[in-house]
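Bump. Still looking for AraC family transcriptional regulator ligand-binding domain-containing protein structure tokens.
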Amino acid sequence: MHNQPNWLSSGLAVELVHALFEGVQLPAARRKTLLMQAGIAPRVLEQPQNRLPPAQFARLYRLLVQLFQDETPGFFSRPLRPGTLKFIGLSLLDAPNLQVALHRFAHLFSILQDDARYEIKILDDQVELRWIELQAPQASRELVHQLMLRLIHGLASWLIAEPLPVTEVAYAFAPASSVVFAFYPQVMTYHAPLSCLRLARRHLQAPLRQTKRDLQAFLRRAPADWLDVAMDQDRVVHQVRDYLMRINPAAKVPEVAQRLHKSVRSLTRQLAQEGASFQQIKDQLRRDLAIEQLGRRHLPINQLAEQLGFETSASFYRAFLRWEGCSPRTYRQRLQG
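Sorry for the wait, here they are.
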């Protein structure tokens, strides 16, 4: 089992962006332009420990899809033209259960792609979703294997409108010196005969709960929904982050503890057992939200500070300087080139 950083690496590591660019031939100036359009400051990529909100990576991914007319940009020798995933999705929606939908998805993908295929294997009380590589991908092997497993997991979770817990993930490669963009750090192994993830077999009989209208929204946000699919929502860190994100990013410990039906002491202890603290969760979320807003809108800095629950603009400036090594204003200026 490969040890990964704790949940605080919940954003996407910048290595994911570097790996994404491996499969496409672009001059440095064009890459910089795409990063700016996605709301990513190029200097953020210079530090391996930096994290990106999934929405920023998703925007960059969509820009590459548009530029290369390939829904798996530069991954394989044969591109998947825009609209492919839409028609695959439409063919799944009338399946009687998840098992039939997954087999359809694997079959259709094998028709469209020569380089690799999916395989659904039932093993006693588990189901194994396999990624079978027939020839090496054009892009980073680690990126492709991880994203394609994430795709089928995210799609399956979306189809039944329920995050599917993963019991094990195996990769058919050795870990690089800094594999920090892995999506399943708690259940991940390397050097496997093939790349796959395992789910409980009972989920296969779940009915599908999505419609054509839902599919449009899913594809419009792609790949955000299947990149950010929840894996372990029972963890207290996720419950706290979810409350802060949906209800009040400025909430204090007593408010959140009360909403989660816990005492402050119990909440603090459970977070510590999961390797986190309330303030760490709050800071990470506010950092992600700040980066997202600075890249998307020209919201005045003082208003953004207020939205994020900082008492003053000065305290927001100090926090952002600690997170990113520059002020929010400087960060926004860099995004604007």
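Residues 48 and 200 are 34 Å apart (CA to CA).

Edit: fixed formatting.
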